[in-house]
Structure formats: C-alpha cells, structure tokens
Sequence to fold (224 residues):
Amino acid sequence: MRVLLVEDEVPLADMVRRGLVADGHTVQVVHDGNAGLAAASTGDHDVVVLDIMLPGLSGYRVLQHLRAAQVWTPVLMLTAKDGEYDEADAFDLGADDYLIKPFSFVVLLARLRALLRRSGEARPTVLKVGTLELDPARHRVFRDGTEITLTPREFGVLEHLMSRAGEVVTKTDILRAVWDAHYEGEVNVVEVYVGYLRRKIDTPFGTRSIETLRGVGYRMSEPG
Fold:
C-alpha cells in the first residue's frame, strides 16, 4: 500500500510512518497543506491520510481541491476535533473516512485496509434509471442531458440507490455503504440527503424516482 501522510505534528507523523513501514507499506510524509495537495494530485498513492488542521491550506481545502480536480484517491481525515459537524463537513467534501486523535495505530491500519478494499471494487461505467444517468468514473450526473451538481455525499447516496434500482434499500444499508461502517450518528440523516436529492434530480424535471416505503426504506425506480 502506498500511503501519503499529510500531518504537521512531526512526532505523530514519524510514529505513523514507522508503523506503516514496519507493516510493509510505502509512505510519503509532508507537513503542510500546499505540499499535501501537490503530492496527492499526482495520483501516485493508494490512500491519503490527511490532517484537518494544517499550515498553508487546511485539510478541508486540500480535499476540496482534490475532488474538484477529480482525484478520487481514498482519503482518511485525522483531526483533534470531535464533533458531528466537523465529521459532516469532511464527508460532504468527499472524505472516505474520519479518525479522531488520539487514535490506535491498529485501528488506523484497519481503516486504511478497508478503504483500499472498497476502492478496488468493480464499478459500472454508467448507471441509468430512466432519463437519469450517473457516471462513477467521471463523478457526473445527468437528467435528460442536463448536468446536475451534487455534493460527494449526495452522489454516494444516489449511486447506491441507482446500483440497486427496483430494490428496497434501508437507511442502515445506505449508512453502511455511503457514510462509514463506524458511523454512530442518527439514521435520519439519510432522510435529509434523500430530500436534497429529490430537490435536485426530480423536482426541477417534474419526476418522482425515489419512493419512500414508510418504516422500511427507499426504492429507486424509473418514473412512470
């Protein structure tokens, strides 16, 4: 595994680097946001471990620039902050996982391995449900030829629903697939994001493609 570690706390960075190298991985370490963005933009790494509080560019801005440039290397964010809004901000910008300091190195390693497994899963070229199209590789969504702008989290929810079109998908299923296996927040956050999606992919086009099954979940289907 080729890891890019962007961390300004030198003792912590050195500890993580030594642990990863001892486990047989290749590690590049940089200590500020600008250097982190430059290194991550090469696409030469399997995973990026990115601190939020960095000199130069913050981890949030680094992540934002990477996703805007369509660099989809999995990113695990590290932070001393502990709050659901910080976590939500990171995920909305395109983070794949989130770990709060202080953390166990064993847990960090397990999270990185999980990210690597998920990033290696086969993904379809284009998903289509009716006139709605989602391109996972280019991270773009279209309805009737009109491009729709989604946040990374909205995109993840839509991709999961479209990949299981016609099936009933529970909120728990969506949380596990799109948020994180370790997410412990309210499941009703899924309702919020489904609402966001409806206002973008359906309302402007006069369609209804995401059905709510009360007490069960959601079903994505071609509008009748």
Notes: The domain at 127-220 is CATH 1.10.10.10 (Arc Repressor Mutant, subunit A).
